[in-house]
Automatic annotation (TrEMBL):
Keywords, alphabetical: Membrane, Transmembrane, Transmembrane helix
Pfam families (alphabetical): Cad (PF03596)
Annotated protein name in UniProt: Cadmium resistance transporter
Transmembrane spans: 6-32, 44-67, 73-90, 97-116, 136-157, 169-192
InterPro entries assigned to the protein according to its UniProt record, in alphabetical order: Cd-R_transporter
Domain of life according to the entry: Bacteria
Amino acid sequence: MIDPLAAAAGAAAVFAATNLDDIVVLTVLFVAARSAGRPRPWHIVAGQYLGIGALVTAAVVVAAGLLVVPDPWTGLLGLLPIGLGIRALVSRADDDAPPAVVGSLLGVAGVTIANGSDNIAVYVPVFRSLDPATGLVWLLVFAVLVALWCAVAALLGSHPTVVRLVGRVGHRLVPAVFIAIGATILVTSGVLPRLLS
């Protein structure tokens, strides 16, 4: 017999710990949506669900022993946000609006997957240890928390102070956030020593 409250608390703790950095990314995307019109808010929400869903699906598949993911090579996904950030810096318009680094649902999903590639390392042992009923509770909690993350980021992205800050330095800040996220993924994944050896 599962304890749904304990399962929900465990799922919430793991989700929060592995997705705290998503609040920053989502906030930047919502500010860009307000100022540049891209990505659209529904692209951000749907892309976040699609990205988190892909990460969880990959973790469940790996946990079931159906696929082996070469550990450090997932760090190459860090190249996606780096590329998006560099593209935004190079193609920056003359105005001071923050650049639309990501303009579509699939772009948001790609950034979510790249930013969460390290989540798989946490999710795999967890999902391996869960029975199906507890796993279902975890999936429901994750779904609710994705909505909460998007709501918090949308609120932050509409806060006048945040909007002013991003408006003043967004043309440099937004690409820098994406480049920093990509660099962090590359460095912490352990893929760089393998590429350099």
